[in-house]
Write a structure and sequence with these properties.
mainly beta, globular, 4% helix, 39 strands, 59% strand, 5-stranded mixed sheet, 761 residues, Maltoporin, Chain A
């Protein structure tokens, strides 16, 4: 692994602490409300001992955890005034967002895509169909990121775990109201949020958060496809497709937590509801000035898409303390999501005559239920024991109707498909202080997984597997009263196939359908416009991981850290495009489907620094600085190099941010620069993909009229630039010539302005 340079950089980075940072005592965590102020029994006469309560600060929680953890609290969440949770996460060490800047996208931790990063909501896995951006930042109390799994949080976390904690009950009553107007590419939108907390009586507290938004989004892209004869270098086909779209979305999110506390018993019920409704008009043009194999599918096309999506989730928890000090915890989490999408696609020739009509309707129902029982006990010898059992069931029902020119497609598969996953888990862990220098955390988790999906012949294909996950963490403090510490982790984790990957029914390429397509009755498609299908025979990926981190905590809450990680992966899953003889076409079609392609590994280095200038410089301005960088490397062993990395994993990602609070006026300004360089990925010996670089600069200005009343102006993606993706595949053409087909898609991005009034009533 070529990380010698980064290792050197890590040591230089940690050595950058100042003399003040080496000698000043660690600042105590900021306390909330004093609960008592009196002389403690046995204290010297006249000495005042003040006992305070409340959760430790974000930095202190991170420092006290034996397993490596990053904690982001309300102050950090509110700092930039982000509209989505993804915009908050992209500034954290090692986190990247897929897709164009300003449009959100899948969360990737350490460059690892969907399924590698475990997403938890209040400690439970999010239900199927859940998008992290369906949560409003106003609904979030804090975010916890674990770089390595623990027995309690679960082992489906090869990349890491992101635990999102929704707003909790407080002793005081408050109302937070925020109203915002947004502007992007000549289109205005708006959103409003209201968070309310009230103590109903001595035992019950109710916290509710409601967010609603509505607006339009514009998009424009151009895709260029070329076929080149590899023997002569001659260009044999060239096509260009442009796409412009205008989309309207209406969203509403509601979360409520009714919390009970009475002596040793505590519990809560937390319903969460989210709904989205949208309409999109898209206009495509297609030109093919060179080549006619395959022929152009149309000259221009008009598409309309209507969709509705909703999610209802209810989480319940009850804790009871026994007389011997054992605490029992019961948890239940059930939810259902519904997605209904209807697309009408009209195609025309150059004379404006209608040549094709595609009518596609999809209904998806995802249901999930999980139950858990946990027992924990703190022993006299500084051991904290936790054990538990979990059951989970997830089921997807999908109904799809695809009709082209009045002819139903894919009738052999039927209209109703089903996939399911069931899981049982047992775990035990022990966290203890070995001595003032060492803390340890050891756990063992067993999980049994059963997956089932519909095959190409309509049969149900079932796979069963089980995983034992030993999990070891340790922290070493050279000086128990100092600020430096070293973390070590040795873990085993896994990734299970997503439900949609278990359904064998294909999605036909819209550019090259199987009936009524141009002048060619056989309707072949191309390698870069394949059909997509699932694979019910997929097996889970297994990974063995090592993490090593060095941390230095500064006097006023700042920190410096460097973290090195390695993961060895077996049964790596990847989509591979091949030419297949399929049941839905009389001629072979190019099909992209997930496969287990063998072993892989990934490793990297993550650097982080955040501090106030006053911590490193006398008489410094009121400036807070944040910086982090992730360096990544990976290899898929069955694919020849170079660039045989894991899917969608860049070489690096970096953030640089600052906040400045004026002393003369009630104004705070700040910004963040996020950069991810472009990269290429070799998917197989014949296939490759490419992603262009991403540079996004966000800024804000906050004017505080008085405590509880402020006006915020923010801008996202101020450095709006084109976002480029592409790929290529080598194949033998219908004429027997070795051919390379490449695509390049350029997507416009936009700057979004927001003006928001923030009130605390």
């Amino acid at each position: 692994m070529r990380l010698a340079g980064p290792f050197t950089l890590a040591f230089v980075f940690l050595a950058a602490g100042t003399a003040e940072a080496q000698t000043a005592p660690v600042a105590a965590a900021a306390a909330s409300t004093p609960t008592s102020a009196a002389s403690a029994p046995g204290s010297p006469s006249g000495q005042r001992v003040e006992i305070t309560g409340g959760r430790p600060s974000d930095t202190e929680q991170r420092r006290q955890s034996t397993a490596s953890k990053i904690v982001i609290g309300r102050e950090e969440i509110e700092r930039q005034g982000d509209a989505t949770l993804g915009e908050i996460l992209k500034r954290l060490p090692g986190v990247t967002l897929g897709g164009p800047p300003g449009r959100g996208g899948a969360i990737r931790f350490r460059g690892l895509g969907a399924g590698y990063t475990q997403i938890l909501l209040d400690g439970d896995r999010v239900p199927p169909g859940f998008s992290i951006d369906s949560l409003s930042p106003e609904q979030i109390e804090r975010i916890e990121i674990l770089r390595a799994p623990t027995a309690e949080t679960g082992a489906r976390a090869i990349g890491g775990t992101i635990n999102i904690i929704t707003r909790e009950g407080y002793a005081r009553k408050f109302n937070d109201v925020k109203v915002a107007a947004q502007y992007e590419s000549d289109h205005a939108s708006g959103n409003a949020s209201w968070t309310h907390n009230d103590k109903l009586n001595d035992d019950w507290t109710l916290t509710s958060s409601l967010t609603a938004s509505s607006g339009k989004l514009e998009s424009f892209s151009t895709t260029t496809t070329t076929d080149t004869d590899l023997a002569s270098g001659t260009l044999t086909r060239l096509s260009d497709e442009t796409s412009s779209a205008l989309e309207r979305r209406d969203n509403v999110h509601l979360s409520t937590r009714a919390q009970y506390q009475n002596q040793g018993d505590t519990g809560f019920v937390a319903p969460f509801f989210a709904a989205t409704r949208g309409h999109r008009d898209r206009f495509n043009t297609f030109s093919q000035p060179l080549g006619d194999d395959p022929p152009a599918p149309y000259d221009h096309a008009a598409l309309t898409t209507d969709w509705e999506w909703s999610l209802l989730r209810v989480l319940g928890q009850w804790r009871h303390r026994l007389n011997d000090g054992t605490r029992l915890e019961w948890r239940g989490n059930g939810g259902e999501s519904r997605s209904d999408v209807h697309t009408l696609h009209n195609e025309f020739d150059s004379a404006g005559a209608l040549t094709g009509v595609v009518d596609d309707t999809t209904h998806v129902r995802d249901r999930s239920l999980s139950l858990g029982l946990k027992a924990s006990r703190l022993l006299d010898n500084d051991h904290s024991l936790v054990s538990g059992a979990e059951l989970e069931g997830v089921r997807r029902l999908e109904t799809r109707s695809n009709v082209r020119n009045g002819v139903p497609l894919l009738t052999d598969f039927g209209d109703d498909l089903e996939a399911s996953t069931s899981r049982a888990a047992l775990y035990a862990q022990d966290e203890w202080t070995v001595n003032p220098h060492w803390g340890a955390h050891a756990g063992l988790r067993w999980e049994g997984i059963t997956t089932s999906g519909t095959g190409e012949s309509g049969e149900q294909v079932t796979n069963r597997s089980s995983v034992w996950s030993p999990l070891l963490h340790a922290v070493w403090k050279p000086d128990p009263k100092g600020r430096d510490q070293i973390r070590m982790s040795l873990t085993r984790s896994y990734k299970s196939p997503p439900l949609q990957s278990l359904l064998a029914r294909p999605a036909i390429s819209p550019r090259f359908p199987t009936v009524g397509c141009g002048t060619d009755p056989d309707c072949p498609n191309t390698p870069t416009s394949p059909d997509f299908a699932g694979n019910p025979d997929l097996k889970p990926e297994l990974a063995t991981g090592i993490d090593l981190a060095a941390e230095r905590y500064l006097a006023a809450g700042g920190l410096l850290s460097a973290n090195v990680f390695v993961r060895q992966i077996s049964n790596y899953m990847r989509r591979v495009t091949t030419l297949e003889s399929v049941s839905w076409s009389p001629v072979p079609r190019w099909v992209s489907r997930p496969q287990n392609v063998g072993d892989a590994w990934t490793g990297g280095l993550e650097l982080e620094a955040k501090f106030r200038m006053s911590e490193v410089m006398a008489d410094a301005p009121p400036l807070e600085l944040r910086a982090n960088m992730g360096l990544f490397e990976s290899r898929v062993k069955s694919v020849p190099g170079p660039d045989n990395r894991l899917d969608q994993q860049p070489n690096m990602t970096a953030n640089l941010g600052a906040d400045y609070r004026f002393r003369s006026v009630p104004l705070t300004i700040g910004g963040n620069l996020n950069y991810t360089p472009g990269y290429e990925t070799r998917l197989s010996e014949e296939q490759a993909a490419a992603v262009g670089d991403k540079l996004a600069f966000d800024a804000y200005a906050l004017w505080t009229f008085r405590p509880g009343l402020a006006l915020r102006l923010s801008a996202s993606n101020l450095t709006a630039r084109d976002y480029t993706t592409g790929g290529g595949l080598d194949f033998t053409s219908s004429l027997g010539a070795a051919t390379r087909e490449t695509t390049r898609t350029v997507v416009d991005t936009y700057t979004q302005w927001q003006l928001r009034l923030e009130m605390k009533l």
